[in-house]
Amino acid sequence: MKITFIGATHEVTGSCYYLEAAGRKFLVDYGMEQGPDYYENKELPVAPGDLDFVLLTHAHMDHSGNLPALYAKGYQGPIYATEATCNLCDIMLRDSAHIQMFEAEWRNRKGRREGKPEFIPAYTMEDAMGVLRNFVRCPYDKIIKPAEGIEVRFVDAGHLLGSSSIEVWMTEEDKTEKIVFSGDIGNINQPLIRDPVYIREADYVVMESTYGDRSHGERPDYPAILAEIIQRTFDRGGSLVIPSFAVGRTQEMLYFIRQIKEQGLVHGHDGFTVYVDSPLANEATTIFSENAYTCYDEEAMDLLNKGINPLSFPGLKTSVTTDDSRAINFDEDCKVIISASGMCDAGRIKHHLKHNLWNPRNTILFVGYQAIGTPGRALLEGAVELKLFGETVQVAAEICKMPGISGHADVNGLIEWAKAFDTRPKHVFVTHGDDTVTEIFAQRLKEELGYDATAPFSGTEYDLLENRCIHEAVGVRIVKATASPKTTKAARAYEKLLAMERRLMSVIRKNEGCPNKDLDRFARDIQSLCDKWDRDDFN
């Protein structure tokens, strides 16, 4: 019974944990890295086709975004997640595939002129659609049994619609150990969704630490702050551009703006228009409404019971087509534009930055975390220019950040979540935080709560039966990003072929004991395939 740490170790994104227990092999999360990669991540120690199942904490890309790539490499098993997470992944993974394919097309058009090798997206729409068929919907607070000797329960993490912490009971050699994966722990008193549920018992804990070194401070009056930013931007004849995560943060912004309009907090600009320029965000808003009765908090439910949609108001316009999106920047009236992605590293927001960054009358308002190395982080740190679509754009617009707004608990919220356990866990593994933050928070858990806590690097292996570290990995820094043959089309295709080899061996082993006639037919099929492709005429 062991856990191997793969991603989000001494880094904020790319969550992935590999476990072996009760004769089964499974993952918790398989997320995409966002922003630059500072440490090398170990490859999965098992062929994707040999995995038995995946548990998913929530739908954000840094937890779910690589699942289609896992499918492309041969994984065909179930992915267990809450109902709302399944619904959100249905749109988010398809959107991710679309963005990757679109940007690959754009880069290749430009690259061909420069003689560069073809850029291949991490996965295709076919891969995204394939993996989505394998999602299994699970209710909150009910124990499910994905395999003999393994039981799982999803509890509300209060971070995103459908987000969860996951309790896993594993039985081996007549001994049961319980490991809890915090997922992303939510901030308290967020709009729309409920506060995180505290878990009382655990032998081991894998815990996030995004804000493990800082406090959000007292909760600001978000509608008042947002209204003041809108007011001063409109008063100087500008527009407000909000780079926003399509799922979660956009819905919070709509919630606040509804309050602003209802209370008349912006003066002299009655009926101002708010554009939500993100097909994904628009679909997500629909999913929020459809899951209201299982995920909304008391305040939001009170509005619904009064016949008020907490996410709608006069002047709200949604953009779906690219023509709709382009038309926004020809609207000369003062307006609010909410567009994805939240870190400005992809999507339609890049077009809105191109059209608005240079104008000192405009404001760019950041309302979420900006990872190191992203365009959003660069703007917050005072960048004077930004390269967009191969063009350098000067930064003249006002750049500001909404104070304290985060879907993540701050250090105080993390400590409250950690100290809720009635007895001390045997070990707490601190992950999903910037390099030094993980160490700082692990040390705080030791000093304040008396926990045995460490911040593992990718590749660290831990025996959960014996409560001992099998292999303590050392962080290997990536000195410089260099071109790799893996970025070429041929290399990616060959990598996929090798993954199929591993899956074939797995299928062969699973067919041991089948009737001889079936095995003979299987062998003939393989022989025929080998005869077809065993050739030397590749050139």
Mean pLDDT across all amino acids? 91
CATH level 4 superfamily of the largest domain: Ribonuclease Z/Hydroxyacylglutathione hydrolase-like
| Biggest sheet strand line-up | 6-5-4-3-2-1-22-23
CATH architecture annotation of the largest domain: 4-Layer Sandwich
Shape: globular
Low-confidence parts: 481-488
- Counting structural domains, the number is 3
What is the end-to-end distance?
A: 48 Å
**What is the CATH C-level name of the largest domain?**
Alpha Beta
Q: Total number of helical segments?
A: 16
Helix content: 25-40%
The biggest beta sheet is recorded as: 8 strands, mixed
CATH level 3 topology of the largest domain: Metallo-beta-lactamase, Chain A
Report the C-alpha radius of gyration, rounded. Answer: 24 Å
The amount of beta strand, in percent, is: 15-25%
User: Would you count the extended β strands for me?
Assistant: 23
The structural class is: alpha/beta
Describe this structure in words.
The protein has 539 residues and is of the alpha/beta class. The protein has three domains: 2-215 and 407-471, Metallo-beta-lactamase, Chain A; 222-401, Rossmann fold; 486-533. Helix content is 35%, strand content 20%. The chain is built from 16 helices and 23 strands. The strands form four sheets. It has an eight-stranded mixed beta sheet. Strands 7-8-9-10-11-20-21 form a seven-stranded mixed beta sheet, covered by helices on one side. Strands 14-13-15-12-16-19 form a six-stranded parallel beta sheet, sandwiched between helices. Strand 7 and strand 8 form a beta hairpin. Helix 3 runs antiparallel to helix 7 and helix 5 (222-235) packs across helix 6. The longest helix has 32 residues, at 83-114. The radius of gyration is 24 Å and the shape is globular. The protein starts with a strand and ends in a 6-residue tail after the last helix. The model is unreliable at 481-488 (pLDDT under 50).
